[in-house]
Amino acid sequence: MIRTRVEQVSLFVSARDGQGQPVNDLAREDFRVFEDGRAQTVDYFARATSLPLSLGLLLDTSGSQRNLLPAEQAAAIHFLERTLRTGDEAMVVTFDLQVALPAGFTSDRAVLERAIQRARIRMPEEAKTESGATPAGTTLYDAIVEACSKRLAQRAGRKALVIITDAEDTGSRISREEALDIAQRTDTILHIILITQRAGFGFGKENERNARKLAEETGGRVVTASYAADLDAAFDQLEEELRSQYILGYTPSNRVRDGAWRKVKVETARRRTRAFTRSGYFAPRE
């Protein structure tokens, strides 16, 4: 949400056809916006790709990823080379039993590439806390909060995280719902490349539910990858997604400043085309 003097709500929207391919030729009149079930008037429309992109690349470096990490690194470097344009910046975050920031926001691709290449699998014995204790497990939700609240909250324009993970969290201090809340409050879209081949571990339905909850509630996308050969195609889909976004602005008919959650839905008039955006926003308070 972007707040102005008239408290306009801005939504970053993606549209996909029946085959899941991005649709990038829609016009203002093709969209309908609803807030808490009430139709709203779209008073601003543009292609969002004209806005600068702040992109966080989050790499799962827990033990379950050890078979695919080198392929993930190569595909991620290629993805950033193709995706970042003038005015865009990216950061690199790794998470296992702890969260680390190998590279803060920068437009320097060489810095980002070195940060990705330095990522390595960390096992429990390598991740002692200051007290000497071993952390409990993979900290996916902590990494999302670290990226959103400390790195993205004050940035303008488009904000997105691309997370390469099996979507299992066994060690975060906060819950999935709390991580989702922070992402929504900072207007951050979560895209997830869901790794379904886990070295020495089985892949469960709960992992997929975690990934889809985080992505769909923020207007993002889940793309699955089982093998190294799948990774470039997965990144290609997210690159297309980032290049095919729209921005819709409207002034809510509900002007009550109560800090409450407002549910948002966007539809398209074009047949077999679905719109995807965040599930809502928090109204301002007096």
Structural features:
single chain; 286 residues; alpha/beta; Rossmann fold; 2 domains; six-stranded mixed β-sheet; four-stranded antiparallel β-sheet; 6 helices; 14 strands; 29% strand; globular; disordered N terminus
Q: How would you characterize the overall build of this protein?
A:
The chain is of the alpha/beta class and 286 residues long. The chain has 2 domains: 9-18 and 30-49 and 245-282, no CATH class; 51-242, Rossmann fold, CATH 3.40.50. 27% of the residues lie in helices and 29% in strands. The protein has helices at 69-83, 109-118, 140-152, 176-185, 205-217, 228-242; strands at residues 9-16, 31-35, 38-40, 42-47, 53-60, 89-95, 99-106, 158-165, 189-195, 222-225, 246-250, 261-268, 274-276, 280-282. The chain has a 6-stranded mixed beta sheet, sandwiched between helices. It is globular, with a radius of gyration of 19 Å. The relative contact order is 0.23.
CATH fold-level assignment of the largest domain: Rossmann fold
How many helical stretches?
6
* Overall number of domains: 2
Question: CATH class of the largest domain, please?
Answer: Alpha Beta
CATH superfamily of the largest domain: von Willebrand factor, type A domain
> What fraction of residues sit in β-strands?
25-35%
CATH architecture label of the largest domain? 3-Layer(aba) Sandwich
Shape: globular
| Helix-strand topology string | EEEEEHEEHHEHEHEHEEEE
* Span of the ends, CA to CA: 17 Å
Please, what is the average pLDDT?
Answer: 91
Main-sheet strand order equals 7-6-5-8-9-10
Number of strands: 14
Class based on secondary structure composition and strand pairing: alpha/beta
Helix fraction?
A: 25-40%
| Radius of gyration, taken over Cα atoms and rounded to an integer in Å | 19 Å
Q: The biggest beta sheet, please?
A: 6 strands, mixed
